[in-house]
Each structure stands twice: as structure tokens, then as C-alpha cells.
Amino acid sequence: MEKTDKASEDKRNCPHCKSMASMSDDFCPKCGYPFKEEIFCTNHPKDAAEGACIICCSGYCSICGGWTSGLFLCAAHSDYEIYQGMARVYGISDAAQAQHAANCLEQAHLHPFLYSRKATQISLGGPEYTLFRSSGEYDGHIINEIKAMVPVQEVIRAEKILRDLDLSG
After folding, report:
1. Strand 146-151's sheet: what is its strand order?
2. 49-94 pLDDT, tens per residue?
3. In CA terms, which of 12, 51, 97, 105 is 20 to 30 Å from 123?
4. Signed CA dihedral, 44, 49, 53, 56: sign only
5. Shared domain check, 59 and 124
6. Using DSSP, how many helices (H) and how many strands (E) does the chain show?
């Protein structure tokens, strides 16, 4: 008699992003693709949801949310920087302050990751002269900022913790 792996029987591939998801999931936790037709828009309960926001885990129709780089996000979360399942919740050019924010998130049992693109001699310890994007447009983010990233499922909790500590950024 051949043994079957019970854990693999409880998994399925998402038809949108091809990642593995649990059979009990209503939507793909990686991309937000709905697995059931009975998911409705949070704002328009009579309309079917096109997807579920990977940050707030709520379903939204095409008016209230949409696909961005293969991920479904609601209008409130559509501007987040997301890389490989991690979202930016804090950014600053001060390394000590960034580390403090990450330590606070770790103490709350979250999984922060500090990311920085500092690459030039000027940006390695020199004054921060680059207060604009490489395209020349300033959007409020410093090019050489150190970013605190957390898994998308932890964004809402991380932002609350940072707000409570007066570290929102």
C-alpha cells in the first residue's frame, strides 16, 4: 500500500501566480487571486470580488482594487512598495533609527528586514544630497533610505506598532 503525504493533499497551486496555497484558503495569500466565486467586495457587497488585497485580506471589486505587478491590492494599499512578499512600512536615512524600528517590530514578534540601496561614495556616510528619485521627481522618499520591510500579512500590525511608538514614516 502506497503512503500519501497528508500535507500535500491539503495544498493547491494558484492558477494566477503558481504558488502553493492551502485548500482551505479563500484566496491566494501570495497574490490575492480568489479561489471561490462567493467572495464579494467589502465596499460593494452585491459585486463579486476580483481579488483579495494581500495586505488587509479583504475582497474588492475592480472599482475598489486592482492588480499591480501581479498582486491584488485595494485602493488604500495600492501605493505600497512590495518586493518578494515584503512591504515597506518605514524608511529613514538614519541607520540607528531604522535599526530601532526593526528591533521594536521584532519584540512584537514580527519579521522585519532592513533593506538599503546605498551604493555611491557620497551615500556611504556622506550627507544625503539625493532627496529626489533618479528620474528627478521627489515623492517624499529619500533614494538612499533604509527601509524596514515586513511580510505583507504583517503590515497592518507593524504600522500600528510604529504609530504607537511615534515612528511612522
Report:
1. 82-83, 86-92, 146-151, 113-116
2. 999 999 999 999 999 999 999 999 999 999 999 999 999 999 998 9
3. 105
4. positive
5. no
6. 3, 10
Q: For residue 148, what is the domain's CATH number?
A: 3.30.70.790
Pairing of strands 65-68, 71-74: antiparallel
Question: CA quadruple 94, 95, 97, 102: dihedral positive or negative?
Answer: positive
**What amino acid occupies position 60?**
Y
Q: Read off the pTM.
A: 0.76
Could you count the other beta carbons within 10 Å of the beta carbon of residue 51? 24
> What's the domain count of the chain?
2
Amino acid symbol at 96? A
